[in-house]
Amino acid sequence: MRKLLYAVLLGLIGAAMLHIVLILGLPRFSTGDAYSRVLGLFEMDSFFSLTREPGATGLSDDDPFLRVAVCGFSVAGGPVRFTASGDVPFWSLALYDSTSNEVFSMNDATAVNRQLDVIAATPRQLTDLRKLPSDALGPAILVEMPDQEGYAVLRALAPTPSYEEGARAFLAKAGCDTVRP
Amino acid sequence: MFRVPLLVALALSIAFGLGIASAVQALKTTVGFGVITLGPWTAYPNAQTSAADPYARAHRARQGRLLYGGAEGLQFIAATDSAGQPLDGRCRYDIVGQTPVARFWTLYMADAQDRAISAAPELPTALNAWTALHEAEGRILIHVSARAEPDNWLASKAAGPYRLVFTLLDTPTAGSSGLIEVTMPEIRQTGCGHA
C-alpha cells in the first residue's frame, strides 16, 4: 500500500514537472506562433496585406474596420526602414521580435507629419546610424532590436467602406526595406 | 512479481496523462494572468510584451495571433452578459453605457476562436465610433439580436454562442495602470426566444 502511494506521489510530481516543461517549452517549439506564420508567407522585406479570409498560414485581419499588413524582417544585413504615408484616419505599427514580444509600437498621432518612418537596427548599427549627418535620416525614429529577426504589423483604419481603398493603398505602398549603408 | 513494473507504469501514466492534460487544459481555459476584468469584458494589456507570464506566452504561441501593441490599442472580449450568462443568439441584448477614452473604437461579433462572424453578408455585425449613433453625453446604446431593431443594431445568429470583441484604438487604457476609472458598457439581456 505504501508503495502504491509512493508511485502515485511520484506520478504527481512527474506530472507537475511535465506541465511546467510543456508550458515553458511551447513557445520555442510551436510552429503555429505568429512569427512562424509571418515567415510562412514567404514575403521577407515587404509588407504583405492580409485578407479577411485566413490565408495559407492562418493569418487574417479579424477586425472588420482594420486592414492589416505584416512584414517579416531581419536586421542581419543592415537596418530595416519602415515607411508609409497616405490618407487614413488612423494607422498603427508594432514591431515584434521572433518570440512575439513587443519591441516598439506607435500610431499616427505620435508620428512626425503623420507619416511612418521607423528604422529598426541592432545596437551596433544604431551607433553607426547616429554618426551619420542628421539630414541623412530625416525624422526617422530609431528602434533597437533585441535580436536580429522580427516582424512588423501595420494596421490602417477604414471606418466606412469609402475609406477601404485608401487603407489598402496605404498598406500596399508601405515599405519595409533593408537600408544599404 | 509484476508489482514493480505495475507501479512504474502507474507512476508514468499519472505523470504523462495528468501533465499533458493539465497543460492542454490550462492553455484552453486561461490566457494567462494579468487580466483586466470590467464587468463581462476581459482584456490582457501585457499579453504581447516580454512581461507576459509563461502561460500567456504559451497561449499566444499556440494561438499565433497578431496582438495589439501598447500604442496601438487594447482588445476587450466578452463571452457573457453583465449577469454572467453566456451570450446566446436566441437572446436579445442591449450594450449600453459610456465607452472608455480612446481615439476610436470598433465592436464586432466573433466565434469562439475570436474570428469575426456574420449572420449574413448584408446584415450589420460590426460597428465603430463613427458609424454608431451616440446618445447625449456620448453614451451608446446598441441592440444585439437576430431580429432587426431600430437605432444601433448588430445582427446575431439565430442560435448558438458568440462573443463580442470591443477594440479601443490609441487608448491611454493600454499603456497606463490607471485602469480603475475605466468603465466599459454593460451588456444587458432584454429577453430570450420570440417573446
Automatic annotation (TrEMBL), chain A:
Source domain of life: Bacteria
Name the record gives this protein: DUF1254 domain-containing protein
Organism: Xaviernesmea oryzae
Automatic annotation (TrEMBL), chain B:
Database matches in PANTHER family: BLL3101 PROTEIN
Domain DUF1214: 72-171
One Pfam family, short name: DUF1214
Lineage: Bacteria, Pseudomonadati, Pseudomonadota, Alphaproteobacteria, Hyphomicrobiales
Recorded superkingdom: Bacteria
Naturally occurring in which organism (per UniProt): Xaviernesmea oryzae
Protein name: DUF1214 domain-containing protein
InterPro entries: DUF1214, DUF1214_C_sf, UCP009471
